[in-house]
Amino acid sequence: MNETDLHSSVQKFVDAYSVDVSNDLIQEMDEIKKIHTANFGEDQLQPFELLNSLNKYKLTTLFPNCCIALRIFCTLPVTVAEGERSFSKLNHIKNYQRSTMTENRLTDFGTLAIESKLARQLNFDNIIDHFASLKARKAHV
After folding, report:
1. Which stretches of the chain score pLDDT less than 70?
2. Distance separating alpha carbons of residues 71 and 65, to the nearest angstrom
3. Domain boundaries in the chain?
């Protein structure tokens, strides 16, 4: 990227995130471009790799705005597909279970379906035993 395009792109970023970064980001980006080859080699680094390299070489105090900008850039969602999947999954569950489930239970069930990878890692034996003991006490009373 040439210097003019870089400066205009950085200025747009600074304008959008003026609370988080200052105009010093432009100078920091120029300095990083100058020292990039000496510190990081000839290869172009991805944003996440650059952020990790800045942390590794303890350069975060020299380039604080750049580190903040990289953290913002690395955490911004690229697409809204995750949210769309969540809503489509909830619609599927809601249509299937609508007549037999309360709103709270439906929300909890939707969360389990959306976070299915995490739910598969859980051990439900203790939860099932506790639930069964509660039901057993109700039966004896």
Report:
1. 77-101, 135-141
2. 10
3. 3-75, 81-140
